[in-house]
Write a structure and sequence with these properties.
Its EC number is 2.3.1.30. It comes from Robbsia betulipollinis. Belongs to the transferase hexapeptide repeat family. The chain has eleven helices and 14 strands. It is α/β, with parallel strands linked by helices. The strands form three sheets. The chain has a five-stranded parallel beta sheet with strand order 1-4-7-10-13. A five-stranded parallel beta sheet has the order 3-6-9-12-14.
């Protein structure tokens, strides 16, 4: 017995459908009959009643990923004008370019921060309005840009000095995905601690999409930080990383377990990610879980699975873990 295929057979791109095909989706006049009124009303009922996921049930202005992406481009251009801004800048016009670019970026950032504040507890507190609070946050953020750039320069030098393939700081700025991830993280981390947490999470997700490196904006990272190659690196919210630390691709600094309350709801905000002290190197594929401490100057080998603290100057290899 010949059986019909479960799906219509594919036809060449230049072959027109026959009349039977058209009748499946069109009325007598050839106009599509998708019953849009029924679909639209059903979607409204889902949004408003049966599956309402709006913050506190109300429509709010969301921060825009597109707008934040443009703001990040401008902030990077203000921090490193000839690399991320305009390569033809001269000593006479560079300050004007930085001032103009930064002014536009900060104004736009204020609007995105204001929108983000609508999704937190801040909009119900007595005191400053979301607009006033956003202005305060952006003013404080702008004041941190000089020390943020100093940290970033230490990161650039760490990459140049730590990678024999690097030929210049400019190459590190333009060609290393870890550089973009660290720049975005330092900006997001500042906003996180100033209270703009929705926007900072969007920045980290934009960075993750661009580089494959996932750093929570709450993670604390010291200077001279270098991520080599970088794809698949994950750094959790409460991780603490010291100075002169180097990570390779597919390293995870994650949580070992997720405690819940009596009702089974996950407890948020507890310290659950590793502390990595100064001068540690963690090689590709290593997974470090829980609130443990990797002592100063230690080396964690590739593909190691580590869930306990190690003292300073330790050297942990995969073979040790298998035989331990």
């Amino acid at each position: 017995m010949k059986m019909s295929p479960p799906f219509p057979a594919l036809r060449p791109a230049d072959e027109k459908p026959d009349a039977r095909d058209a009748s499946d989706v069109s009325g007598a006049s050839g106009t599509p009959t998708w019953h849009l009124d029924d679909v639209v009303s059903g979607l409204r009922r889902s949004r408003e009643v049966t599956h309402n996921v709006r913050h506190r049930g109300r429509i709010r202005e969301l921060p825009s990923r597109k707008a934040i992406g443009a703001i990040l481009d401008e902030l990077c251009a203000a921090l490193f004008p000839t690399h991320y801004g305009r390569p033809d800048l001269t000593d006479e016009d560079i300050d004007h370019f930085v001032g103009s670019t930064l002014s536009h970026a900060l104004r736009a950032l204020g609007e995105q921060v204001r929108r983000g504040l609508l999704f937190g507890a801040e909009d119900e507190l007595d005191g400053p309005t979301p607009r006033q609070r956003a202005d305060q946050i952006v003013r404080a953020f702008a004041a941190q840009l000089v020390p943020i750039r100093a940290l970033l320069v230490s990161d650039l030098r760490a990459a140049f000095e730590g990678d024999p393939a690097a030929t210049s700081i400019s190459e590190v700025l333009l060609c290393y995905p870890g550089t973009i991830a660290i720049i975005y993280h330092r900006l997001a981390h500042a906003l996180w601690h100033l209270g703009a947490r929705f926007v900072s999470r969007l920045i980290s997700d934009i960075s993750h999409s661009m580089t494959g490196i996932d750093i929570h904006p709450g993670a604390s990272i010291g200077g001279s930080f270098f991520i080599d190659h970088g794809t698949g690196v994950v750094i959790g919210e409460t991780a603490v990383i010291g100075e002169h630390v180097r990570l390779y691709q597919h390293v995870t600094l994650g949580a070992k377990r997720f405690p819940a309350d009596e009702a089974g709801v996950l407890i948020k905000g507890n310290l659950r990610h590793p502390v990595v002290e100064d001068g540690v190197v963690i090689y590709a594929g290593a997974t470090v879980l829980g609130r443990i401490t990797i002592g100063r100057g230690s080396t964690i080998g590739g593909n190691v699975w580590l869930t306990y603290s190690v003292p300073p100057n330790s050297s942990i290899a995969q073979a040790q873990m298998r035989n331990g």
